[in-house]
Design goal:
heterodimer; A: alpha+beta; D-Maltodextrin-Binding Protein, domain 2; Dipeptide-binding Protein, domain 1; Dipeptide-binding Protein, domain 3; 3 domains; eight-stranded mixed sheet; four-stranded mixed sheet; 14 helices; 20 strands; 28% helix; B: mainly alpha; MetI-like fold; 76% helix; 0% strand
């Protein structure tokens, strides 16, 4: 027995020894400065043209660049093109490229790469197009090595913003496994289920955007509490979490919080009973207390919305709609009575089960709807099923989901146009459709007014109950500085530095 | 020989059935892998291009037959979600889950066997009540709770061990073990509690056997009787429990792997189902079926070593 105890003691000692051996070894030589961050989902594709997920883009905006880029306000700024001219009829775009840009594989960027990129995207190379957004391009020319002229079939004021799409090197076939771009960080590796590794690109052309860290490890972490534990155990320097989780992080950390240009909405299927009646939709808008949802579900870390538009997009935001449906239960009851639902109503709220915040929101809404005799039942479905049944087949009554932000108001609002493939609210209004299509050829001042009008129409028609723009919460080690928010998901690693 | 052939035939039938059922379920389940991968912001042209790249534009039945044909060439196909060969994904996940299984089994034995033996010999003492209670507690606390608890104590508060990730043995054996200790312990506490009970009962029963009395009457010392005879004869249930535990962990512990962000089999299983990644899930079911059969077979083998009276029939 004694011998046994001896063995156990020895093993325990050995383990304790192991625990201490690799406690942060003191840096004798210069260690590379690496930022370890978390994201909530696997990249959908390593080829930026084949990727659509917001989380993936947030990382890959460090690796890839387009002709233009965008700044913290969402405004277009020069990228690979240092300047450009747009013809008066809005049909010809002439881009002048920088002559000092190299891809991560060492090759210089020339007009040929841009021509190759846009031909592939638009399908002008004879293959199927990769993006339907570039279908209006009719000709691509390169008069010299650093000039590219794009010709469009119709004017589109949202087009310039689209040219932030990644430019990829011509003739390089390995984008899906070993991506190559021009950004301040180069791709090193992707370990499925675990991490993505990026390193500083030493030959990056823009001194001002030169990374101050040597690299980044982006861990794919699907569990919130795992992110908190990893931050607190010192294994992560930067983590993205929900508001209520942020409260559990104790210690030397900085918490950044900002609206993220998302629209979380209680979507009503405008084409099915009883939501084909505008009075019912308005009654729902009157009875749902958004501030209560924000307090209960998001611990206050969210911005109330009144149309399908976040105030983050300040220029185009219509700020006159705030009191349109100030919570008023009596008014809601009256509208329900007019619509013939005085005795109540039974509805189903279909919620994707993997988004806990939407599930929580649904629970608050169920309680609020009881005030007007509406008996709502929550149906939890898997995300894949949601995408098919709700988002593709419109086979649902009501749902709760978040629509991620876009840089151009057209991309945000056009989903409500009649016949749009992803208009899952099945909303339809001729005036709205006309404004959206006219805005594409209008001047900038006219556009601003038109998009404000569009938001107003949506609110008047109560196309949905827009709830909030939940804040994005980022927690960093207190000595890691420089975290910057953008109106779209972008973890700008080039701005990060350790104090 | 006929025994092995029968086993192999049984395995084959099982695999075919499992594979057909998986295929059938995916026919019924709504959800298109392309849209699940790309999400709500998918561009139609982009989705069509991805569909073509993955070969999803071909009929389902045709793809399934292709997969079966590939299987005979040892090709498990390409995962939709990761766009990598399924065999590569499986083998890297197996390294994680296999490591987890090995360390968990070692910890289970290290905790379960000595404590069980000790309890059998000290059933009347007051400490044994405490030990019994402790094992009762670790048995009833679910693995993920234990995982969160251990991680907040040893990783967050004390900072002795990492709370996430996996380091390969080839990179650093010490880091490998460190990355596995907490997840393994979370699993091992539960399984060792079961083991403690079995060992205790088994040892107590053996002590009542006639041969023990004979041994004592020969004048053998207590330790000699215990370790030379009783313990050896009590090992059968240990092997049964270990076999079950091994099959269980190798099958991927979805929750533990998520809590510790480990890219193992469990993680692959949940990803393959939520993203409707049929080739990956087919590969995984194949793997799981093989694991169960192999574990059972190995357990049978060890039985015959420990107790020569048991022969493979």
């Amino acid at each position: 027995m004694k011998r046994q105890i001896g063995i156990i003691t020895a093993m325990t000692l050995a383990m304790t020894g192991m625990m201490t051996i690799s406690a942060p070894a003191l840096a004798e030589e210069e260690e590379p400065v690496i930022v370890r961050a978390s994201i909530g989902a696997e990249p959908d594709n390593l080829n930026p043209w084949m990727s659509a997920a917001t989380d993936t883009e947030a990382i890959f905006l460090n690796v890839f660049e387009g002709l233009v880029r965008f700044d913290e306000t969402g405004a277009v700024i020069p990228g690979l093109a240092e300047e450009w001219e747009i013809s008066d009829d809005g049909l010809t775009y002439t881009f002048h490229l920088r002559d000092d840009v190299t891809f991560h594989n060492g090759e210089q960027l020339t007009a040929e790469d841009v021509v190759y990129s846009y031909e592939t995207l638009s399908g002008l190379n004879g293959e199927d197009p990769i993006s339907s957004k570039f279908a209006t391009i009719t000709a691509i020319e390169a008069p010299d090595d650093f000039t590219v002229i794009l010709t469009l079939s119709e004017a589109n004021s949202a087009f310039l913003q689209l040219t932030r799409v990644a430019v990829l090197p011509e003739g390089y076939e390995e984008q899906s496994t070993a991506p190559v771009g021009t950004g301040p960080f180069a791709f090193v590796e992707y370990v499925p289920g675990q991490k993505m590794v990026l390193e500083k690109y030493e030959d990056y052309y823009d001194e001002e955007r030169m990374p101050q860290i040597d690299g980044a490890e982006i861990y794919i972490m699907t569990d919130e509490s795992a992110v908190v534990n990893a931050l607190q155990s010192g294994q992560l320097d930067l983590g993205t979490v929900y508001a209520d989780t942020a409260d559990y992080v104790i210690g030397d950390f900085e918490v950044y919080s900002s609206p993220q240009n998302m629209v979380q909405l209680f979507a009503l299927n405008n084409s099915v009973e009883p939501f084909d009646d505008v009075r019912v939709r308005q009654a729902f808008n009157y009875v749902i207390d958004k501030q209560q949802i924000i307090d209960l579900v998001f611990s206050g870390y969210a911005t109330e919305l009144y149309s399908n538009f976040s105030p983050v997009m300040a220029v185009y935001y219509n700020d006159e709609l705030t009191d349109y449906y100030a919570t008023d239960v009596e008014k809601a009851k009256e509208l329900m009575k007019e619509a013939g639902y005085e005795d109540g109503l039974e509805i189903t709220i279909t919620v994707p089960s993997n988004y806990q915040k939407h599930v929580d929101t649904a629970q608050v809404i169920v309680e609020q709807l009881k005030q007007i005799n509406v008996d709502a039942e929550i149906e939890l479905i898997e995300w894949g099923t949601w995408l098919e049944d709700v988002y593709t087949s419109f086979d649902y009554q009501t749902t709760i989901v978040g629509l991620t932000g876009k840089l151009d108001p057209n991309d945000i609002l056009a989903r409500y146009t009649t016949g749009f493939k992803r208009n899952f609210m099945e909303y339809s209004n001729e005036n709205f459709d006309k404004l959206i299509s006219d805005a594409l050829t209008a001047s900038e001042e006219e556009r601003v007014e038109m998009y404000k009008e569009c938001q107003k129409i949506l609110t008047e028609d109560a196309a949905a109950v827009w709830i909030s723009d939940p804040n994005q919460i980022v927690i960093t080690r207190s000595d890691l500085k420089g975290y910057t928010f953008y109106p779209v998901g972008f973890m700008d690693l080039s701005k990060l530095y350790f104090e | 020989m006929i025994f092995y052939l029968k086993k192999a035939a049984g395995l084959l039938v099982t695999l075919i059935l499992v594979s057909v059922i998986t295929f059938g379920v995916f026919q019924i389940l709504p959800g298109n892998p392309v849209y699940i991968i790309l999400g709500v912001d998918a561009d139609p042209a982009q989705a069509a291009a991805l569909e073509k790249a993955l070969g999803l534009d071909r009929p389902m039945a045709e793809r399934y037959l292709d997969w079966i044909a590939g299987l005979f060439r040892g090709d498990l196909g390409m995962s939709y979600r990761y766009q990598q060969p399924v065999s590569e994904l499986l083998s890297s996940a197996l390294e994680v889950t296999g490591s987890l299984a090995v360390v968990t089994l070692v910890l289970t034995v290290l905790i379960g066997v000595p404590v069980g033996i000790w309890l059998a010999g000290h059933s009347h003492k007051k400490y044994s009540v405490i030990v019994s209670m402790l094992s009762q507690v670790s048995l009833s606390v679910p693995g993920f709770c234990m995982a969160v608890f251990l991680s907040s104590v040893f990783a967050v508060s004390l900072r002795w061990l990492p709370s996430m990730g996996f380091v390969s043995w080839s990179d650093s054996p010490v880091e490998w073990l460190r990355s596995l200790l907490l997840p393994s312990l979370s699993l091992a506490l539960g399984s060792s509690s079961v083991l403690i009970r079995y060992v205790k009962v088994s040892v107590t029963n053996q002590q009542k056997q006639d041969y023990v009395r004979t041994a004592y009457s020969k004048g053998l010392k207590k330790t000699r009787v215990m370790y030379g005879h009783v313990v050896r004869n009590s090992l059968i249930p240990v092997i049964t429990i270990l076999g079950m535990t091994a099959a269980d962990i190798l099958g991927g512990s979805i929750i533990i792997e998520n809590v510790f962000s480990m890219p193992g089999i469990g993680r692959l299983i949940s990803v393959s189902i939520t993203s409707r990644d049929l080739p990956l899930l087919q590969g995984l079911t194949l793997y799981l079926a093989v694991i169960v059969v192999v574990c059972n077979f190995v357990v049978d083998l060890i039985y015959s070593v420990v107790d020569p009276r048991i022969r493979l029939k």
